[in-house]
Amino acid sequence: MLHRILRPALKQAQLLSAIKNKQPLWRHETLVSASSACDATIRSLEDCLEVNYGGAPMWFDYVWLRDHCRSDASYNSSTNQRNLDTASIDLSIRPDNTTVQDGHLVLTWPGGHVSKYSLSWLAENSYEKNKQSTIQPRILWNSDTYKKANIPSAKWKSFMSCDDEVKNFLQNYLLYGIAFVDDVPATVEATEAVTQRVSLIRETTYGRMWCFTSDFSRGDSAYSQLGLDRHTDTSYFQEPCGIQVFHCLKHEGTGGRTLLVDGFYAAEKVRQQSPENFELLAKVPIRHEYIEKSENHRNHMTGIGPVLNVYPWNDEMYLIRYNNYDRSVINIVPHDLVRRWYVAHRELTNELRRPENELWVKLTPGKVIFIDNWRVMHGRDSFTGLRQLCGCYLTRDDVLSSARVFGLQA
Ligand SMILES: C[N+](C)(C)CCCC[C@H](N)C(=O)O
Ligand SMILES: O=C(O)CCC(=O)C(=O)O
Ligand SMILES: [Fe+2]
Prior knowledge:
The chain has helices at 15-20, 62-67, 119-124, 127-130, 143-149, 156-161, 163-176, 188-196, 263-273, 275-283, 335-353, 396-405, and strands at 7-8, 26-27, 33-36, 40-44, 48-53, 56-61, 75-76, 81-82, 97-101, 104-108, 114-118, 154-155, 178-182, 201-202, 210-212, 228-231, 243-252, 258-262, 286-293, 298-305, 308-310, 317-320, 359-361, 368-372, 376-380, 386-394. The protein is an alpha+beta fold. It has two domains: 7-130, NE0471 N-terminal domain-like, CATH 3.30.2020; 143-405, Clavaminate synthase-like (Double-stranded beta-helix). The strands form eight sheets. Strands 12, 13, 14, 15, 17, 24 and 26 form a seven-stranded mixed beta sheet that branches. A four-stranded antiparallel beta sheet has the order 3-4-5-6. Strands 16-25-18-23 form a four-stranded antiparallel beta sheet. Helix 9 (263-273) packs across helix 10 and helix 10 crosses helix 11 (335-353). Fe (ii) ion binds next to loops. Residues 222, 228, 233, 258, 378, 380, 389 line the site of 2-oxoglutaric acid. It catalyses: N(6),N(6),N(6)-trimethyl-L-lysine + 2-oxoglutarate + O2 = (3S)-3-hydroxy-N(6),N(6),N(6)-trimethyl-L-lysine + succinate + CO2. Residues 47-122 form the Gamma-butyrobetaine hydroxylase-like N-terminal domain. This is Trimethyllysine dioxygenase, mitochondrial. Keywords: Carnitine biosynthesis, Dioxygenase, Iron, Metal-binding, Oxidoreductase. Belongs to the gamma-BBH/TMLD family.
């Protein structure tokens, strides 16, 4: 057996950037032992196990392996819950014996506990397999590319009776951030029934299922005939509503078309043109606020976060919080940064306002739209006459859960 010195290839501060840039975090200097099987080769290195399977090496940390033991004592395979107390694992643990048998890696730990992992499960869950993948695959669009994609709307009858129709609908929704169901009876009840095929409804201060018209029943400008610039809703919640559903039950008048803009498409343009502006929008905290003091409603909501929210490990965008109406006082940002933030915000706004990025649709009775409120902005033309919209917000986790149940990546 050879001795090996493990040296960190990187300083602690460089770890995160290495994760982002997919660099190896450690250097493996010498081989400790090797064994082989028909379908896999394994090498026990000082700090991790190297598994060569399916043509490429994968590296598994020993504590990770013990923690992910799939035996009944360590893990409940019907609920996917861990039985093992991770804090009981010796952080310098190493297996006494490692072999490959019948497509499984078999490890015997000090004390005699045996862990078995199928090689395909290991490959599926290796860092090497997953490091390039995005959490949520998407197709970013502008008006032209969305129209050219010719995405069919789901149809009420099959949507209510056929799971495949819901699955296709959800796949489109995940990829584009918008999806339609047509031929829905123009009632609140039918709209509710449609949403319940995919999710739970998120009750908010606006109610569960809401129905609104330009009657100023609430202070918000949505309850008027005014045009509304593109925005995301409930930016003043710490967790903005995941999905917005609209169904126009009636409109006797002119105007009132719905505007849709893919916020991620615009933000990616900013990222390409001026990474420093993208970074400001992703870091500077902005508060949004909603205050209502009427006889029937007393609310004071706030949510703080950057306009662009990205996962820190891969810079993938997952939430855009953009609502110029509901943006609150900026008072926790120094003045020089404020100026730079306004420049960045202007660039994003210019991208969001490019006519070629605007998808206009006239919502008519029967057409229900689902909008990813973490990604796609909505707005509307001013209008005349009686216009009645109903809809609701959905809980994001439940929509995504439905999608996963259908086998979709969400
Ligand atoms: C959809 N519904 C009419 C119920 C509420 C409208 C909320 C509008 C608010 N300015 C926001 O952007 O969150
Ligand atoms: O009236 C509309 O079409 C949409 C208004 C709006 O932005 C909202 O209700 O969130
Ligand atoms: Fe809105």
